[in-house]
Amino acid sequence: MTENKAAFLKDFPLSIQQDVIWGDMDAFGHINNTVYFRYFENIRMAFFERSGVNTHKVATQVGPILASTQCQFRAPLTFPDNISIATRIADLDKLVTGEKRFTMQYAVFSESQDCIAAKGEGLIVYYDYQQSKSCPVPANIIESFKALK
Prior knowledge:
It is a single chain. This protein has four helices and six strands. By secondary structure, the protein is of the alpha+beta class. It has one domain (5-148): Hotdog Thioesterase (Thiol Ester Dehydrase, Chain A, Roll), CATH 3.10.129.10. Strands 1, 2, 3, 4, 5 and 6 form a six-stranded antiparallel β-sheet that branches. The relative contact order is 0.24.
């Protein structure tokens, strides 16, 4: 299960670091399972900010909505630790104009354990908030995703 951090990071176009927070531990002495979804949300929003998704959504009312998410727990996180949270779009090369959805992959790397503590995915659907229906991912957003690769 051990993976070199440099190898971990080269597989993902964007990562952020943060400390594990003591208050996020549960009665069993490890980080509660719900917190991992917050980690995924943190990196997802950092990716959307970096790629211009958030700016585009404000300007057009067209943006992403999380349709589903899942997590695979691989090693328990505990306080204290520093983690790297990373993301990428699965099959980015296959994401073309007209697609309405894509899958983001996430991973959480534990510094103290020198391993991936969790992996997950989120199905993202593009959504027109004014018309209340799904819509294609804008071509400029797809290009922005590919530029982060």
